[in-house]
Design goal:
- It is a single chain.
- The protein has one domain: Rossmann fold, CATH 3.40.50.300.
- It is globular.
- The longest helix has 34 residues.
- By secondary structure, it is α/β, with parallel strands linked by helices.
- A hairpin with a 2-residue loop joins strand 4 and strand 5.
- It starts with a strand and ends with a helix.
């Protein structure tokens, strides 16, 4: 894998029972950029992120992360995963949570203060997590993901439920991490966050329907905002699928007529 590629996925198949979540998707994610994984709830964003960090069972395909097979022990300190639900202990303080996870990762003690400041929780560092607001609790989870200075940070809807000011502050943090060379994959179903990314993977029903940039997305769809752009892509995808189904029906009918 080339040095400028953080994640490479080839023919990824994931099944849940008899349902095909992914039926052979391919893409790469470059290093040092913010890649937005966007699409409606249920489109497969979380399953894809879990596949990348190695906690999702896959049916087949190759997922290579930072030059290693996904889930490799050698990636343990190089990849961080922030789940959508807060992964913290409510009966511990913010600092105690971070100190605990820092000890598990054998990260330097200075990391605790560093990430507290990065996510803006200095004033709340001594509070129990259970006493925090939902947005503050989400920031504690983000701080945990940043311990140990990982090279790749995978965040599942980190801004969900946050007010616009907090969302803007977190995106400033994400940009600062990217400027330092950290690769980020950030999922969201809020389309205006697409404009904050360097690159976009837009998903629908377990498929990548666009691999693009914010500027190219708006230009390609001749729209002024990402919501309208995504709706235009969905309509285009529907039209393509309908044309494909129509062509198959016509081909089947033709073969039947020839056979008769």
């Amino acid at each position: 894998m080339m040095n400028n590629v953080a994640v490479e996925i080839a023919q990824l198949h994931v099944r849940r029972g008899r349902t095909h979540v992914f039926d052979g998707i391919d893409f790469t994610i470059p290093r040092g950029q913010i890649t937005g994984l966007l699409g409606p709830s249920g489109c497969g964003k979380t399953t894809l992120m879990r596949s990348i960090v190695g906690v999702q069972k896959i049916a087949s395909g190759d997922v290579t992360v930072l030059g290693e097979p996904r889930g490799s022990r050698r990636l343990r300190h190089r990849v961080a995963y922030g789940t959508q639900g807060a992964s913290v202990y409510g009966d511990l303080s913010v600092r105690q949570n971070l100190a605990y996870f820092a000890s598990l990762l054998k990260a330097p003690r200075s990391d605790v203060d560093r990430v507290i400041d990065e996510v803006g929780l200095r004033a709340q560092s001594g509070q129990l997590v259970d006493s925090l607001s939902g947005g503050q609790e989400s920031r504690v989870s983000l701080a945990i993901a940043l311990i140990g200075s990982p090279e790749l940070v995978v965040l599942d809807e980190p801004t969900v439920g946050l007010d616009p000011l907090l969302r803007a502050e977190l995106w400033e943090l994400f940009r600062g991490l990217s400027d330092r060379g950290v690769t980020l994959i950030v999922s969201s179903h809020v389309m205006d966050e697409a404009l904050r990314c360097d690159r976009l993977l837009l998903m629908r029903e377990g498929r990548i329907i666009a691999d693009t940039t914010p500027t190219a997305l708006l230009e390609d769809t001749a729209t002024a905002d990402p919501d309208a752009a995504f709706l235009a892509l969905i309509q285009r995808d529907r039209d393509t699928n309908e044309n494909t189904r129509r062509s198959r029906r016509e081909a089947r009918d033709h073969h039947r007529e020839v056979g008769e």
